[in-house]
């Protein structure tokens, strides 16, 4: 059991090193050598865990999605659909230094899809998860099961979340209240269709 745990810890350490290289120098700087250096390892140790750059990038992307999913699932629930939906959406937006960094790395990994096709599945899975989260939020807010109107409303919410995330990434974190106001208005408009 300890070897499995050690391997899981080592993989996470290497994924985090990939993220840091991306944040510091960009996706083009990610190589087995630069990631090993960032993690404080020799190249051979990294290659033992991830024989190729593609495997390293894929795991890094998968771990990022898993951690974001855990964060959203851990959002405390109040029982008030509007409050709960707003809290979940806030966890999806780059409002903290960690979530901003996550978004920057995520965009870099998405941009790498043409060169690393294995990242497409991760990208598509994350997109589908976000869409499903929006559907569930709209179901919660509208108090009814999925139908054509609800699906369209969820797509709109998904587009708003994606768009706000990009705008927030390009702006300053201290200027995020406008984005929260947009989300609050959208959540209220959805809930009023109940």
UniProtKB/TrEMBL annotation:
<dbReference type="InterPro" id="IPR009057">
    <property type="entry name" value="Homeodomain-like_sf"/>
</dbReference>
<dbReference type="GO" id="GO:0003700">
    <property type="term" value="F:DNA-binding transcription factor activity"/>
</dbReference>
<dbReference type="InterPro" id="IPR039538">
    <property type="entry name" value="BetI_C"/>
</dbReference>
<protein>
    <submittedName>
        <fullName>TetR family transcriptional regulator</fullName>
    </submittedName>
</protein>
<feature type="domain" description="HTH tetR-type">
    <location>
        <begin position="8"/>
        <end position="68"/>
    </location>
</feature>
<dbReference type="Pfam" id="PF00440">
    <property type="entry name" value="TetR_N"/>
</dbReference>
<dbReference type="InterPro" id="IPR001647">
    <property type="entry name" value="HTH_TetR"/>
</dbReference>
<keyword id="KW-0805">Transcription regulation</keyword>
<dbReference type="GO" id="GO:0000976">
    <property type="term" value="F:transcription cis-regulatory region binding"/>
</dbReference>
<feature type="DNA-binding region" description="H-T-H motif">
    <location>
        <begin position="31"/>
        <end position="50"/>
    </location>
</feature>
<dbReference type="InterPro" id="IPR050109">
    <property type="entry name" value="HTH-type_TetR-like_transc_reg"/>
</dbReference>
<dbReference type="InterPro" id="IPR036271">
    <property type="entry name" value="Tet_transcr_reg_TetR-rel_C_sf"/>
</dbReference>
<dbReference type="Pfam" id="PF13977">
    <property type="entry name" value="TetR_C_6"/>
</dbReference>
<keyword id="KW-0678">Repressor</keyword>
<keyword id="KW-0804">Transcription</keyword>
<keyword id="KW-0238">DNA-binding</keyword>
């Amino acid at each position: 059991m300890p070897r499995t745990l050690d391997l899981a810890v080592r993989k996470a350490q290497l994924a985090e090193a990939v993220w840091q290289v991306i944040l510091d120098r960009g996706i083009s700087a990610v190589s087995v050598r630069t990631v090993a250096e960032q993690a404080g390892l020799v190249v051979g140790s990294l290659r033992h865990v991830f024989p190729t750059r593609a495997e390293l990038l894929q795991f890094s992307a998968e771990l990022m999605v898993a951690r974001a999913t855990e964060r959203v699932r851990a959002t405390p629930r109040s029982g008030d659909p509007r409050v709960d939906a707003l809290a979940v959406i806030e966890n999806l937006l780059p409002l903290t230094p960690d979530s901003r960094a996550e978004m920057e790395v995520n965009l870099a990994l998405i941009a790498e899809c043409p060169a690393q096709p294995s990242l497409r599945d991760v990208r598509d899975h994350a997109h589908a998860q976000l869409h499903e989260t929006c559907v569930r939020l709209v179901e919660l807010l509208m108090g009814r099961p999925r139908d054509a109107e609800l699906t369209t409303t969820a797509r709109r919410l998904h587009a708003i979340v994606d768009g706000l995330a990009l705008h927030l990434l390009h702006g300053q974190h201290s200027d995020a209240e406008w984005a929260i106001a947009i989300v609050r208005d959208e959540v209220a408009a959805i809930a009023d269709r109940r």
